[in-house]
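[User] I have long wanted to understand how a fold can be written as tokens. Those tokens are not coordinates but codes from a learned vocabulary of shapes. Could you go through the record with me and say what the backbone is doing? Thank you; the sequence and its tokens follow:
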Amino acid sequence: MRSRLAPVASVLAACLLLTGCQRIANVSGTVRVDGKPAKGLIVVFDPQATDAPRGVATTEGDGRYTVRRLGPGAKSGVPIGSYAVKVMADADNPASPKVPASYASGSALSFEVKGGGNTFDIDISNK
């Protein structure tokens, strides 16, 4: 029995030492500006942990977004943890809605990503 567990234990130890084996969780939601679904906004999840990748999404026509982490492969989800969240207009899309500067700076929103699926709906007011 011991000989079977040794390789598994070695792989787990290497994973923890080299990458931290970050648990990844899916993140999605809907962005509304002045009560209406917002198309073409960029949503950025900036991690509090320095070793975690940033997550990015673009809102669809119905305001929905699904976060993908930056880096090789750009896969769905981000590591579990605390994030400052930025929402900004897409500079390449003049039709994207206007968003107050406090949302683009990351000072207006923060979310705690937990295991499993996470839904963070964002309501922005320009009034």
Observations:
- The helical segments are 2-18, 101-105.
- The two ends are 67 Å apart (CA to CA).
- The first helix runs from residue 2 to 18.
- Residues 22-124 form a domain with the Immunoglobulin-like fold (CATH 2.60.40.10).
